[in-house]
Specification:
The complex is a heterodimer of chains A (116) and B (108). Chain A has 116 residues and is an all-beta fold. Chain A has no helices and eleven strands. Chain B is mainly β. Chain B has strands at residues 9-12, 18-23, 35-40, 47-50, 64-69, 72-77, 86-93, 97-99, 103-107. In chain B, strands 1, 3, 4, 7, 8 and 9 form a six-stranded mixed beta sheet that branches. A three-stranded antiparallel beta sheet of chain B has the order 2-6-5, with no helix packed on it. Chain B starts with 8 loop residues before the first strand and ends with a strand. The mean pLDDT of chain B is 96. Classes of the chains: A mainly beta (116), B mainly beta (108).
């Protein structure tokens, strides 16, 4: 079964750093992109960017370029989404998804709450 | 690029058919056959329902179908059932990806 399992919920303070993870299994991890998608409370889906785990090439949405970093460790079939300095506006659910021109499957989501 | 435009809500009675539109431009929806659709129930992760405009993944009901005309893609749900009540998002892929604004489907 193709599966993406994400790390657990996080509660952070503004200015703190954070890295969340997404571990793939059941398929060749280097054969597909991994994308990250944000969903703010009560809002729609926003594509953040993607990574090719085979060579760590990344492609970001202009809306997120410079605000987050996407990385991957193909040796452990895991992709990451990282912030160096969180803001309250980063509070959201974050999903990873195996990606081609479609997204399937999706991880279960990681809820990030940023509050002082 | 802006998000693709979808109606905020669509409703129908059980057994009816409904269609959700997804309007982009000639640079995204109209220019490529890379439109996909996702169903999201409250508190759950999205699920792929249609890819490459009109293809259904294994396990997705044949009550779901997709099409495209010009810069507008459409998702049709036939034989509407209570379990179809959810949010639906389209997505277009070019050199990057974009989602639609989302449509809440209500089964009356």
């Amino acid at each position: 079964e193709v599966q993406l399992v994400q790390s657990g919920a996080e509660v952070k303070k503004p200015g703190e750093s954070l890295r969340i993870s997404c571990k793939g299994s059941g398929y060749s991890f280097t054969s597909y992109w991994i994308s990250w998608v944000r969903q703010m409370p009560g809002k729609g889906l926003e594509w953040m960017g993607r990574i090719d785990p085979s060579d760590s090439y990344t492609n970001y949405s202009p809306s997120f370029q410079g605000h987050v970093t996407i990385s991957a460790d193909k040796s452990i079939s895991t992709a990451y989404l990282q912030w160096s300095s969180l803001k309250a506006s980063d509070t959201a659910m974050y999903y990873c998804a195996r990606a081609s021109d479609w997204f399937d499957p999706w991880g279960q989501g990681t809820l990030v709450t940023v509050s002082s | 690029q802006s998000a693709l435009t979808q109606p905020a809500s669509v409703s129908g009675s059980p057994g009816q058919s409904i269609t959700i539109s997804c309007t982009g431009t000639s640079s995204d929806v109209g220019g490529y056959n890379y439109v996909s659709w996702y169903q999201q129930h409250p508190g759950k992760a999205p699920k792929l329902m249609i890819y490459d405009v009109s293809n259904r993944p294994s396990g997705v009901s044949n009550r779901f179908s997709g099409s495209k005309s010009g810069n507008t893609a459409s998702l049709t749900i036939s034989g509407l059932q209570a379990e179809d009540e959810a949010d639906y998002y389209c997505s277009s892929y070019t050199s990057s990806s974009f989602f639609g604004t989302g449509t809440k489907v209500t089964v009356l």
